[in-house]
Design goal:
alpha/beta, 10 helices, 47% helix, globular
């Protein structure tokens, strides 16, 4: 599905050096898109490039280097003369209790997960408006709809993304023919938990059981790209109790809040242990 939608178009994927970003880039290429690959690690981006079926352009940069962004966007536009789609995927997560977490961690999460994609989007958007078409996606999270323990800063940044991109959709969809998709993944088998920030801001270094048991990146990427091609505004990538939790947020929020509060109580009871902070697995009787 969607091959005709992507064929010949130029799509820009941030966070394309691994995980979901790499999987989306590979799938985009198979569907006939020309792909701009971005991330911080140029060698890892080259590994992604080597797996693509068609034309690609590696553009390595730090997403929060705001002074460099205008020149980076100029470089991206110079490659094919246009950007038909921008998938804001780069980001970091968090695993720490609020009471323990440095304020610097919250500022870092907001910079990387919210301000950076907004800054890039604002630079690309005028070119899409001039072209009279385009597509912008933000990879938020189920954490952008549900506030879950040990992810307070991550939840805040992802909630902010949902609000910003929904507002942008209202401004540009009918007025300029630009579509906007908010992508809401649950657990996907990536390095997001290992790379998550701890209370001090250091990388956590270990994964979560729910992430390890989550959806394969290739499956998630295919669902996302199918959703974009179908013109879906919200693209939910979740299974089992994670999908049920999102449903509860609308149908019975008080029940969901009670479940999450019980998880918070259990975390508080285990405070000070040497075990890594971790919530239940996807197939247990509570959402993650």
């Amino acid at each position: 599905m969607g091959d005709g939608f992507y064929a010949g178009k130029t799509f820009w994927v941030t966070g394309a050096s691994s995980g979901l970003g790499r999987a989306m880039a590979i799938d985009l290429s198979r569907r006939g898109a020309r792909v701009i690959l971005s991330g911080r690690n140029e060698a890892a981006l080259a590994e992604t490039r080597d797996q693509l079926a068609g034309d690609s352009h590696v553009l390595a940069f730090e997403t929060t280097d705001y002074d460099a962004l205008p020149g980076i966007v100029d470089d991206a536009l110079a490659w094919t003369g246009r950007i038909d789609g921008l998938i804001n995927n780069a980001g970091i997560s968090q695993r720490s209790l609020i009471v323990d977490t440095d304020m610097a961690v919250y500022r870092r999460l907001m910079e990387v997960d919210f301000f950076a994609p907004v800054a890039l989007t604002k630079l690309v958007l005028p070119h899409m408006i001039a072209a009279g078409s385009g597509h912008v996606s933000i990879v938020s999270s189920l954490a952008g709809k549900i506030g879950t323990p040990v992810r307070s800063g991550y939840c805040a940044a992802k909630h902010a993304c949902v609000g910003f991109y929904e507002a942008m959709r209202a401004e540009v969809e009918t007025a300029y023919g630009i579509s906007v998709s908010v992508i809401l993944p649950g657990s996907v088998q990536t390095g997001i938990s290992r790379n998550a920030l701890s209370a001090s801001g250091a990388p956590r270094g270990v994964s979560d059981a729910n992430i390890d048991g989550g959806m394969k990146p290739e499956s998630a990427a295919a669902l996302i790209l199918d959703g974009i091609a179908a013109g879906r505004n919200d693209i939910v990538i979740a299974e089992g109790m994670e999908a049920a939790a999102l449903g509860l947020r609308t149908s019975d929020p008080e029940q969901l809040f009670a479940i999450l509060a019980e998880q918070g109580r259990a975390l508080a009871a285990s405070a000070g242990s040497d075990e890594p902070i971790e919530l239940r697995r996807v197939n247990d009787d509570a959402p993650v």
